[in-house]
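thread from #wetlab-drylab

HS: before we spend reagent money on co-crystallization trials with adenosine monophosphate, can we at least see a predicted complex? here's what I'd submit
DV: go for it
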Amino acid sequence: MTNPLYEALLGQHEGKDTAFLHLPGGATLTHADFIARADRFANALTARGIAPGDRLAVQLTKSADALALYAGCIKAGIVFLPLNTAYTASELDYFISNSGAALFVCDPASEAALTPAAAAQGISVMTLGTAGEGSLAAAADAAGPRFAPVPRGPDDLAALLYTSGTTGRSKGAMLTQENLLSNARALLDCWRFTADDVLLHALPIFHAHGLFVATNLTLLAGGAMIFLPKFDVEAVLAELPKATSMMGVPTFYTRLLDEPRFTRDLVRHMRLFISGSAPLLAETHARFEERTGHRILERYGMTETSMNTSNPYEGARRAGTVGFPLPGVEIRVADGEKALPAGEIGTVEVRGPNVFKGYWQMPEKTAEEMRADGFFITGDLGLIDEDGYLHIVGRGKDLVISGGYNIYPKEVELLLDEQPGVLESAVIGAPHPDFGESVVAILVPEAGAAIDLDAVRAAVGEKLARFKQPRHYAVIDALPRNTMGKVQKNILRERYKHVFAG
Ligand code: MLC
Ligand code: AMP
């Protein structure tokens, strides 16, 4: 038995001194350097008793070492569980306990604050800094630079990525070797990445976009990445001349367009700009083409499925659409069990080797979102037009996407409802010029009570990651409800749609 993901992404590069990561400050890591570091992490983890199939929970500032840790896990068969760096200790508590992680790895600066959460679950903490410091870095330095890949099958788990749920409880999406590998292969085919590509990587590496779409694809193609710590307009403008391709969420592109130094000349040499994780406004698409001459290639995906569709590399990239199913992926638009004809709006469903194995230890949740014939119900609303392009026209699920991060209103509402003086709440997304959408909280006070918004903000700030926190609060007497008693969020969305305008 072999380890197919390792072989495709890393094995082919063993011992090669080709460039893989161009780092801030000018250093370049070759494929051989990167794999040697991954091997050291694999040795260090294995020596601590972390076994194939165990989950490694990590909350790490982006760095080459953090990425090498992911590669080490692939090689050692350890299930990589990356967590948003914005999560608070109370959010992490849930992920660590729910996943039964064997070890938690965090930044050295967070160790003191996060150790209690790990200790409460009976697991230890190791640290990994961005400049080679921390206990895991030291263990890797002392470990051997060669590690024999652990045999894995296509159905074995490679990663566990948490996505929030409509009930407010996050679910761990189990992603297999085959899920990740089939998707990287499909994207390679569609987007024509080669060993000559230099991808400008400014995304976080704790989500499918930055970790799988960008990294796995580049590794498979044998190309290199300009590996920036985060999206920073100045750094991106400085590095674009050295890149051939870039991936981003729509906020990256609107921020670039706000910058007059982002010109046609600066990006004349570029091969490809790709957008995803949130809807790209047709207006942004048009402005981008007008400014640069490039048509952004928009694609559509999800944590549970990796990428599903893409606009064509050759052929018309249509603004406001997410293109065609990737090779091997089937898409249908359905109303319940019934597939709908072209032009009709329904729920987007996906089937293929990219579709995850299920939610970690939640078979009933998996069953709720999976049809008997293997189609996964995305919760997105869409239509397929006469030419076969998929349009995402809305969401059946109650979800806000802010700057490419997902916020499930229920999670925020549950916390708001607990606050003194709050009878009930509704959380919605409103259009936001930078983040696409941002979070609005509408509160109803208990009879005779006054709500102390500063106290609410403070309580929310302690518990929830910053990106989930409402950026606008309103207090009203009663929530609009339909005859069934359900809160009419569409009315609230309409009423508050201008709160972030101008
Ligand atoms: C940061 N902040 C956000 C935010 N990101 N608030 C709302 N939404 C976000 N996305 C907070 C900061 O904590 C800060 O708080 C304030 O907003 C301003 O910060 P900033 O400096 O302007 O933000 P920045 O650090 O530049 O981050 C913005 C961003 C980043 C858009 C560059 O969020 C980002 O990289 N997003 C990409 C997300 C992503 O990769 N998604 C892929 C999911 S995978 P304060 O305290 O100052 O107010 C997936 C599947 C698929 O969806 O299809 O790809
Ligand atoms: P996540 O749970 O972070 O994986 O987010 C997945 C969701 O992001 C999808 O279900 C869509 O709602 C949304 N999404 C991703 N790409 C696009 C896109 N190109 N256009 C519209 N929505 C998108």
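DV: The mean pLDDT is 97.
HS: ok that's useful, forwarding to the group
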